[in-house]
Amino acid sequence: MSVKRYAHGSRVPGWDRAADLAKDPALIPDPERTEVPPALRAEIEAHMANYPDRRSAALPALEAAQRVHGWCSPEAIEQVACVMRVTPGYLDSVATFYDMLENAPAGRHSVYVCTNISCSLRGADELCEEMIRAAQGDEEINVRAFECLGACDIAPMASVDGIYVGPLELSDVPALLQDIRAERPVLPDKQLGRRPVADPRANSREYPLHPAAPAQRGRGA
Amino acid sequence: MTGSSPLLLFTDIDEPGLNTREVYERRGGYESMRKALAMSPEDVLAQLEASQIRGRGGAGFAMGTKISFLPKGAIDKYLVCNADESEPGTFKDRELMQKTPHTLIEGIIIASYAAGASRSFIYIRGEYVQQADALDAALAEAREAGYIGERILGSEHSLSLVVHRGAGAYICGEETGLLDSLEGKRGNPRLKPPFPANQGLYQGPTLINNVETLSTVPAIMKMGGDEYAKLGVERSTGTKLVSVSGHVQRPGNYEIELGVPAREIIYGLAGGPPEGRSVKCWFPGGSSSPVLTADDLDISYDFDSLAKARTMLGSGAIIVVDDSTPILAVALKVAKFYRHESCGKCTPCREGTNWTVKMLERIEVGEATPMDLEIMASVQEHIMGNCLCVLGDAMAMPISSLISKFRGEFEEHIEAARMRRGMAPGETNGDGALAAQGAG
Known about the structure:
The structure holds two protein chains of two kinds. By secondary structure, chain A is an alpha+beta fold. Chain A folds into two domains: 25-95, Arc Repressor Mutant, subunit A (Orthogonal Bundle), CATH 1.10.10; 109-194, 3-Layer(aba) Sandwich (Glutaredoxin). Chain A contains seven helices and four strands; from the N terminus they run ααααβααβββα. A four-stranded mixed β-sheet of chain A has the order 2-1-3-4, covered by helices on one side. The longest helix of chain A is centred in the N-terminal third of the chain and has 12 residues, at 58-69. The two termini of chain A are 24 Å apart. The relative contact order of chain A is 0.10. In chain B, a hairpin with a 5-residue loop joins strand 7 (239-246) and strand 8 (252-257). In chain B, the strands form three sheets. Chain B has a five-stranded mixed β-sheet with strand order 8-7-11-9-10, with helices on both faces. Chain B has 18 helices and eleven strands. By secondary structure, chain B is α/β, with parallel strands linked by helices.
């Protein structure tokens, strides 16, 4: 993922999507004229009911819309704005701030490869390059270098649609991509959920491995 | 010795089904909640104060004192659990939430009772999908059992709890950035004061605690605050989860008693660097803590000893770097991370992180002179203390420490890179090492 920066290098997230001042600001969408898929509407309304202030539902609502539309497209933002009764501009400001919200069309499957310090010390930069190279041309798979994912115990690692796998070798890359394409659990033996805690004193006896996660939370699922 | 210290959080944590209420209660779960609800909120707070537990998220502020800052009286108060575990090198909360989510929920019930909060939220980073799912499932069970809701177990205490998923931003681990994000905005930090204890979520008094801190609360209630305070050392009581990563043979989470020597953790528990390599430097508390070197391995791992060594315990994340790694690569990795995560609100942080990356890149390609090290050090000084939050400081502290402790290596690198650069255009130097180092 290339991050757009000012010419001298710094940035404020979302700066490159400045408002068009020649246009009137978009208002809260008219519910009569905005079609929202019923399931999406129900999910957003359920999130809004969780909070004293409905705007708190912005992140879960955008995440839900992204699952439906593949990214935070103008149409997705319009639908969320309509249900939440806020302006599209407000949601745009939120969507451009967070790394997991896509502001351009993206593949249905997200592969985040951690390239932060602990993973990098164990070869993550090479892994990420190899992963990007191997997935090139496959529009369904969105490989991104990502900041620390909180799994340095399985470094180098990646998150595939929310499932953490590691430690990964360069030779794991083909199998990992095959699993994604076949829509089956990725590298079941390397999934984090199956790992016991490292501290040898934590468990008084050996326990069976946790079962591999049965399903993947694919974006289109 | 770590071998004899008790385990409070990790006891049989891999027992199958511990994530369910059935197994958790069979092992004595939710007993502490019953005990607490039978006491007065003041008495519960007194137990937490007696335990002297300090926050496990990074700042190390005394939890009991923090609760006592909340105004008294019948106003809407909030409890927010900070589960936005994003400090590079930290992965302890992930283990707790995934394997024993009910411990956290029980801790939240007890802490909210002591604080008089009736609404609570767990702000979990969006990347932790499986952990948030585990929390949601546990929350549904707790609700069904009447532990979350109106008048819990017939007491006067009512509590709602929502698991709120973030969407990927390090800055949302900063408590006021977290609050803005939870209110549905960009996660920009707020000016302090007012502090969240007075004006936090929705402008109401808010208690914010880390996952590990809250997960320890049931153990404190079970054993009593005074007993808990006997663990560890003075002013650093109790046990602590440490996440050890980088160049060690057994990376992972370990529960230690505060005050054990760092060597015991890095070599004894995590196995030290691979055969034939040695420790070059280590971050004692996440990537934002100033580094220590092999000479400091015998330091006592507790809040005050590390502060005295001009670094910090932070989140308890030890990152070990061995002697095969060029220090420039480490500095560049750290600086690039903070540049990416700066929210852009305060100029010293937004521009300072960027300038630091650019100067390090100049060193890498041989465009720097030794004077650039002075300039870079002065940029760090101009970031520290000059922003709304400490994200900029979080880069400035480790970068300053890397420059001051490895100055010789930086200077050698500058000279070597300049020599290579002095070669005729297009001429290769037949040495791929620099390119490999530049991978950071």
